[in-house]
Amino acid sequence: MRFRCLIGLLAASIAPLWCADAGRVHYQRRAAPDLDRFTDAPSRAQQQWFRTHFQRMAVFSPYFDAKTAWYPNALVYFDLYGIPRESPLVRDHPDWILHDSRGSLLYIPWGCARGVCPQYAGDIANSGFRAWWINRAKALLSHGYLGLWIDDVNMEFRVSDGNGRQVPPVDSGTGRAMTWEAWRGHVAGFVEQIRQALPKAEIVHNSIWFAGPPGVRDADPAIQRQIRSADNLNIEHGIGSDPNLTGGSGIWSVSALFAYVDRIHAAGRGITLEEFTADRSALQYALAGYFLVSSGDDRFGNSADNPSNWWDGYDIDLGAPLGPRTDSQGVFQRNFSCGMVLLGEPGLPPRTVTLPTPLTTLDGQSVRSVELSGRQGVVLQGCKSS
Q1: Cα separation of 193 and 208, whole Å?
Q2: Do β-strands 147-153 and 202-207 pair in parallel, antiparallel, or remain unpaired?
Q3: Where are the beta strands (DSSP E) in 49-93?
Q4: Beta-bridge partners for 186
Q5: Could you identify which of 12, 37, 154, 364 might form a hypothetical disulfide with 158, taking C-beta atoms 3.0 to 4.6 angstroms apart as the criterion?
Q6: 108 falls within a domain
Q7: How does DSSP assign 369-386, residue by residue?
Q8: What is the span of the domain harbouring residue 272?
Q9: Could you give the count of Cα atoms lying within 13 Å of 361 in the half-sphere of its Cβ?
Q10: Cα R_g (the chain), whole angstroms
């Protein structure tokens, strides 16, 4: 595994260790058409810009196949069980597609309209489908990709009819309706097989952080197996782009998400907080959340960023963390050798936080206190930039 800096909690008395790099942003961007004008034919200086600013890119084949020569840290996108409707597999291997008790083919419930969805749901329990998938992944990696960015690693039951309504598929192993427990077991077995077949590839799972049975969630044995099969767990919508996160300590709280990240770290894996916002206030809130949990092997990304609108907030260096985050009545805080971050949980009434020493905001203002309210984050620097 590539996780270097945080030591798993082998016993309650053993404290985690963080890299000094925990005070910096390790940026990962999932490629989209807005990046094409920068990656189509970049100059040497532009190529270097990407290598300097993007620790990872999640990209698509075949568009990026010839570009790994100048950007070697690319992760190629591959869906765990999505089969596009136009894929030859639909014609050649309909037995590799999940179906309901009446034989109707089923889908991944995303983008559904007029009775169809863009992707059929592949049978993750089918040995033929698994073998095809792994051979295809090996062929993709042969173009020089660092690893795989695997989408739809769904430990929630995500199979539907053409209208997006969840439907239990027939389990090809039993011939009966697949249970949620069986689904999780099939997903875990599949990603374990991928990990074993590709031991040198870096593997990122785009997975659901709140998946799992009520009261159990990621303590579920199958989800534990899934976590161990990845190097990094992508949390789609992160903190700033998820309007459903709450304050307090409930199952949908920011605190619960932070606790999930702690458990991922204890398992020796990293996370990526993937945001979807162009709002700088929401972005600073999300960035504060990243620094509150950062181990030095985590990543942060945002769909709105490209070389023409790069935010200098990503270039901040807070130095080494002085300890874990703290929480005082809905105000999260973490101190670094060169700064501090504060985050007000959703619903927090406006509050003045007095600082122990003058610090500098991202816009260059020296402050001795900050006003903080719900869904607001502040990143403060205490060392002069070189």
Answers
A1: 20
A2: parallel
A3: 56-59, 74-79, 82-84
A4: none
A5: 154
A6: yes
A7: EEEE-TTEEEEEE-S---
A8: 20-325
A9: 12
A10: 22
d(CA 243, CA 320): 31
Question: Which residues in 257-267 are b (16+ Cβ under 10 Å) and which e?
Answer: bbebbbebbeb
Rounded to 10 deg, the angle between the 180-197 and 127-141 helix axes is 40
Q: For residue 252, tell me if it sits in a domain.
A: yes
CATH code of the domain in which 160 resides = 3.20.20.70
pLDDT of res. 384: 72
pLDDT one-digit tens code per residue, 94-145: 999 999 999 999 999 999 999 999 999 999 999 999 999 999 999 999 999 9
Q: Which two tokens stand for residue 385?
A: 């930039």
Residues with Cβ within 8 Å of residue 214, at least 6 apart in sequence: none
Alpha-carbon distances, residue 43 vs 53, 70, 144, 153, 363 (angstroms): 15, 10, 20, 36, 31
> Could you tell me where the DSSP H helices lie in the chain?
36-39, 44-53, 88-92, 127-141, 180-197, 221-228, 254-266, 280-293
Nearest-angstrom CA–CA distance, 267 and 144: 28
Write down the pTM of the prediction: 0.94
**Number of domains observed in the structure of the chain:** 1
CB atoms within 10 A of CB 354: 7
Percent of the chain with pLDDT over 90: 93
341 within a domain of the structure (yes/no): no
- Give the pLDDT confidence of 326-361 residue by residue, as tens digits: 999 999 999 999 999 999 999 999 999 999 999 999
Contact 277, 284 (CB under 8 A): no
| 274, containing H or E segment | strand 270-275
Query: Chain-wide mean pLDDT for the chain?
Result: 94
CA gap 191, 207 in Å, rounded = 12
Token couple for 151: 């989408």
Residue 103 CB: number of other CB atoms within 10 A? Answer: 8
By C-alpha distance, which of 370, 369, 350, 368 is closest to 284? Answer: 370
Is residue 259 in a domain?
yes
